[in-house]
């Protein structure tokens, strides 16, 4: 295997220490993905440099000039505190003719603008919850035709369950108006209001640019949630390890689907990936309702790359151990053909 010069681009506040020795799981949690990626690429024999970024490109420009990377491993999920701008950063890499891991800027823009992504799904006649969006400065005073409560209200562009809590599932106009205002005020984006689909939470990973591979269908469950509470991944579920233990959070290969249904979901995931113009890798989030219908919630081109998390765990079932998975992502980035090469 060729030794590569790799810049790992990450948020400045998530640059990890050189060792985790003496640190608790909760202290490591926020930057575990960054640490796992950096340390694993180094163990693979690559010349790796971590670069923390905030609101300007100066650290990245300097690192590129000094390190002359073969590829940039992208772990950014926002820029200027806006999730929608991660596509602009990757666009900058393309304009500078630099190879990178993960999704291309066009695919990032479509997937991370959740309303736009749902319109693309609708165009391709892929079943997704009906929705409407409320821009900042506007109020939610009524439901558009054909929509019914309950709805779930979330940011139209932020990631990692930002702004999502149990109160995000609303069942009246008063609750809807209150939650939309909450998203506007506390997250700072438009609010996406979509039908809440009660059912099993399923995900499936996809790898590739042209030739696509899928992981097995994965499932998330919280069996200790109080009865009547919606099984949604709130910000607290995402980031609070004690709360994860309290609700019994677990992820695992989806059970009792049968080969035909699993193959159907794999085909659907590839169809979504191509419809949105994604590349590199992504995770597709779905729900299965009580009638066994599959609903597509969103495509996530920035899934958690921690060792032991569901994306990596699922592809281990396909024969990729964690180092092999990261090397695969690097290889896909090197092989991607951007427009300037076309």
Describe this structure in words.
The chain has 342 residues and is an alpha+beta fold. It has three domains: 97 residues, Rossmann fold (3-Layer(aba) Sandwich); 68 residues, Dna Ligase, domain 1 (2-Layer Sandwich); 142 residues, D-amino Acid Aminotransferase, Chain A, domain 1 (2-Layer Sandwich), CATH 3.30.470.20. It contains twelve helices and 13 strands. Strands 8, 9, 10, 11, 12 and 13 form a six-stranded antiparallel sheet that branches. α2 crosses α12 and α4 packs antiparallel against α5. The mean pLDDT is 94.
In the CATH hierarchy, what is the architecture of the largest domain at level 2?
2-Layer Sandwich
CATH topology of the largest domain: D-amino Acid Aminotransferase, Chain A, domain 1
- SSE order: EHHEHEHHHEEEHEEEEHHEHEEHH
Distance linking N and C termini = 27 Å
Mean pLDDT: 94
User: What is the strand content?
Assistant: 15-25%
Describe the sheet with the most strands.
Answer: 6 strands, antiparallel
- Percent of residues in helices: 25-40%
Features:
D-amino Acid Aminotransferase, Chain A, domain 1, 20% strand, alpha+beta, 342 residues, Rossmann fold, 12 helices, 3 domains, four-stranded antiparallel sheet, 13 strands, Dna Ligase, domain 1, six-stranded antiparallel sheet
């Amino acid at each position: 295997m060729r030794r590569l010069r790799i810049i790992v681009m990450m948020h400045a506040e998530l640059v990890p220490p050189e060792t985790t020795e003496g640190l608790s799981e909760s202290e490591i949690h926020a930057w575990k993905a960054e640490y796992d990626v950096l340390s694993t690429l180094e163990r693979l024999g690559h010349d790796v440099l971590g670069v923390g970024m905030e609101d300007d490109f100066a650290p990245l420009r300097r690192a590129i000039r000094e390190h002359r990377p073969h590829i940039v491993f992208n772990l950014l999920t926002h820029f200027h505190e806006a999730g929608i701008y991660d596509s602009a950063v990757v666009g900058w890499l393309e304009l500078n003719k630099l190879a990178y891991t993960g999704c291309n800027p066009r695919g990032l823009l479509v997937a991370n603008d959740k309303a736009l992504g749902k319109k693309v799904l609708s165009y391709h006649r892929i079943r997704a919850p009906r929705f409407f969006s409320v821009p900042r400065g506007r109020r939610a005073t009524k439901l558009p035709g054909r929509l019914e409560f309950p709805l779930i209200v979330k940011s139209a562009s932020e990631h990692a369950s930002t702004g999502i809590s149990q109160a995000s599932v609303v069942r009246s106009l008063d609750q809807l108006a209150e939650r939309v205002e909450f998203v506007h005020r506390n997250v700072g984006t438009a609010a996406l209001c979509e039908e809440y689909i009660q059912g099993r939470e399923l995900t499936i990973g996809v790898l590739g640019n042209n030739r696509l591979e899928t992981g097995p269908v994965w499932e998330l469950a919280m069996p200790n949630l109080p009865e009547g509470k919606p099984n949604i991944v709130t910000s607290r579920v995402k980031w609070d390890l004690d709360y994860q233990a309290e609700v019994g959070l677990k992820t695992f290969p989806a059970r009792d689907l049968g080969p035909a249904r699993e193959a159907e979901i794999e085909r659907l995931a590839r169809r979504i990936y191509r419809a949105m113009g994604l590349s590199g890798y992504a995770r597709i989030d779905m729900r299965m309702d009580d009638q066994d219908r599959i609903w597509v919630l969103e495509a996530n081109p920035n899934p958690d790359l921690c060792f032991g998390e569901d994306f990596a765990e699922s592809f281990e079932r396909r024969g990729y151990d964690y180092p092999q998975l990261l090397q695969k992502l690097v290889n896909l980035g090197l092989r991607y053909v951007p427009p300037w090469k076309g």
